[in-house]
Every structure is written in structure tokens, then in C-alpha cells.
Amino acid sequence: MVLLNEPITLTSLGRKIRAARRLADLHQAELAEACGVSRSAVNQWEMGRTEPSASKLFAVARATKQPLDWFAEGLDSDDLRARRDSNPQPSDP
User: Fold this and answer.
1) Domains of the chain, CATH where assigned
2) For the whole model, what pTM was predicted?
3) Alpha-carbon torsion angle 56, 88, 22, 52, nearest 10
4) With helix as H, strand as E and coil as C, how does 32-92 read?
5) Do 21 and 31 contact (CB within 8 A), yes or no?
């Protein structure tokens, strides 16, 4: 279990982006393509060196099928997994 319940910082936001990406079974390059950025940008977010803009964070949430508010809440990856499993997303056509 990855604990992500510390105050939101660049590092904790990066950990959350990484956890959401992994739970969605996406590679950095796949998330980057979905967000319209480079793989390097995703890596920088995950490492806590930079942060995504609001529109890019929305794209991360959409691509990983996670609620946007999770990225700002103090939940851990088990909570995220439980939310995902209890609220299946409709399939794209």
C-alpha cells in the first residue's frame, strides 16, 4: 500500500499521479499521449519536479478514470482501488 495521506505537495501529487497511472495499467508514454504532453512531462510530474496545469490534471483524471478530487484528498492507493472497483466506469464505444 502506498500511503498518500500527507498534505498535498508536488511530491505527494506526483505519487498520486503515479499510483493512478499504475492502477489504470498505463505506461508514462500512454498517459502522456492521453494528456497531450511528452513522456518526460509525465515523468517530471511523478517525480515532483513540476506540476500539471489544471487542464492537464483533469486529463490525467480522465485518462486514469479516477475522480479529480482524489488528487487533492488524503487517500491512499487502497482507497483509490476500492473506489475504482465499486464505481465501474462505462466503456468507451
Assistant:
1) 10-85 (1.10.260.40)
2) 0.71
3) 10
4) HHHHCCCHHHHHHHHHCCCCCCHHHHHHHHHHHCCCHHHHHCCCCHHHHHHHHHHCCCCCC
5) yes
Model pLDDT for residues 5-34, shown as the tens digit of each residue: 444 555 788 999 999 999 999 999 999 999
For residues 59 and 35, the answer to whether their CB atoms sit within 8 Å is yes
Distances (CA, A) of 48 to 15, 32, 62, 76, 80: 8, 16, 20, 17, 20
